[in-house]
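Each field is listed here:
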Amino acid sequence: MNEKLIVTSKEDGYAIVQFNRPDVLNAINMEAMTELVDALEALDKDDDVRCIILTGNEKAFAAGADIKEMADASAMEMLKRDQFARWDRIRKVKKPIVAAVSGFALGGGCELMMTCDIVIASETARIGQPEINIGVMPGAGGTQRLTRAVGKVKAMEMVLTGSMISADEALRWGLVNRVVPVEYVLEEAKNLAREIASKPPVAVRLAKEAVLKSFDTTIEGGLEFERKNFYMLFASDDQKEGMKAFVEKRKATWKGK
């Protein structure tokens, strides 16, 4: 039996999803991407999981796409393959995804990191979009998400030169949340996942939706969406419990309803 390209495990309130292609620095091929999306969607439906951690290993989060799969493809083959449809499914995962990034996060690895909601990077992280060096350009959101994260001039430099940036540079440019020593990156991600998992699940879901909506609409449309989600939470048991617990000066017990 072939070894799984994606390995999942569950801990108290959260799950860990890990790339398992160490021999190729976790390069993303179509099989791995299919396994990844299937795993994320399954965990999204699991009531025992309230947050998801996505990670690789110390050498690489994911060092880009598997070029061998694409090198000889024609434009029509790529169009029919529609490999980026899998990436669209990740955008629909409702639970927060925390990336724990060490080593290389390049090309598709960088794009995958940017689909996550929060990023913990190790001091060894090297992040970039080097597609220009092999005659193409980012195709899984790199030109769009990177520009929204770091601004036009920095994104243009990274995309047109294919240069990598360090973890500290990524932190300064707002591409990652925090930088920690490599031996602590997964533990820091776990601490954050546990904290998120301790919050009311329905409110977390709707808050994530509202933040992401800000990238897809005007400020007026985003404010309207936020307001509707805020009002909707008053139909939840967790809202009643949370406010009652606050008034009674006790810890709330969340039901996710």
Summary: The domain at 6-197 is CATH 3.90.226.10 (2-enoyl-CoA Hydratase; Chain A, domain 1). The chain has two domains: 6-197, 201-247.
